[in-house]
Design brief:
36% helix; Rossmann fold; globular; 7 helices; alpha/beta
């Protein structure tokens, strides 16, 4: 992809993020183009990641006081964040989902043998997930458009949600922490904590209730 194509792709991702966070019903218009965009990027996606892309995520995960049994990685891409989650919580089952079939194909090929039994990948739309209510004690989104009602639905009471952005406000898919809080509080999330590392940021939030 040319430099111009990359710039246009980043601008489109930011446009889609702002539109969908503000009006989730607009996802129907953006879903197809974004899926095609990430299908196209899948073969070179790993080479586009910076070495410290997941440092903010790792700092947020270190603040979780207990190990979750089941973890969901939304917008898993080629699976790199899912592998970070699996290594942080060695007893957990990790499920990575992505809208892009080609991203999922690469993620499955990337899976290290030592994690193969605990990490699996599925193609799914984060706006309409194929999981029961309260299925996961931790839901992670790394550079991912959040669908707040759906992630709240699948997060178990007492569970956690973490949102990380590898380049902070410069990330094409970026939601400011104050907007995240404003959307999450009415859905029963609290205990917010902010993290910064390198050029990236993360927000950790706990869903009220008992596990």
């Amino acid at each position: 992809m040319s430099d111009l194509g990359m710039r246009l792709g980043r601008k489109f991702a930011r446009l889609a993020t702002n539109a969908v966070v503000g009006r989730p019903g607009l996802w129907r218009a953006f879903r197809g183009p974004l899926r095609r965009q990430f299908d196209h990027l899948a073969p070179r996606w790993d080479a586009m990641r910076s070495e410290d892309a997941f440092t903010p995520l790792e700092q947020a995960l270190a603040a979780i006081p207990s190990s979750p049994a089941r973890v969901l990685d939304l917008g898993t891409g080629t699976g790199l964040a899912a592998f970070v989650l699996a290594r942080r919580f060695p007893q957990a089952e990790v499920v990575g989902v992505d809208l892009s079939d080609r991203m999922i194909e690469v993620a499955r090929r990337n899976a290290p043998p030592e994690l193969g039994g605990r990490v699996r990948f599925e193609q799914a739309d984060a706006a309409r997930l194929p999981f029961d209510d309260g299925s996961f004690e931790l839901v992670s989104l790394a550079n991912m458009i959040p669908f707040f009602a759906e992630l709240a639905r699948v997060t178990a009471p007492g569970g956690w949600a973490v949102f990380s952005f590898s380049a902070g406000p410069e990330t094409p898919i970026w939601v400011p922490p104050e907007r995240l809080r404003a959307e999450l509080e009415p859905l029963g999330f609290s205990d917010f904590a902010d993290f910064r590392a390198g050029g990236g940021t993360a927000l950790l939030a706990r869903k009220e209730g008992r596990r």
